[in-house]
Amino acid sequence: MTAYAIAHLRRPAADLPDEVLDYMERIQSTLDPYQGRFLVHGAPRTEVLEGTFDQALVIIGFPTFDQARDWYHSTAYQRLLPQRTDHLDGDCLLVDGVPPGYEAAATAAAIREAQSAAPDT
């Protein structure tokens, strides 16, 4: 099942430092062994539909959760990571995607059933 590395980065007050640009130039070489590919990278066009969002969003897809985790903890990426984290604040997480044929209505039905079967407290 596809997994995703998602980074929510606060934009710096000034131009990006050379270290971050170097990070951007080198990150793909750390992704290649794990079949990672950028799906969203800063998105030059963003339309905020709810709330506020003045940050950058990065989404990288991987074939599996294990490949995503292995990439993040790889020696090559860990060596490169401080070039971003020393200059940009943000959050990063790994998440599993949904399986083929996933239906939100089926998930809602299962939750309703579980909640109705739970004793009242």
From TrEMBL:
Residues 2-98 form the DUF1330 domain. It comes from the Bacteria. Gene3D superfamilies: 3.30.70.100. This is DUF1330 domain-containing protein.
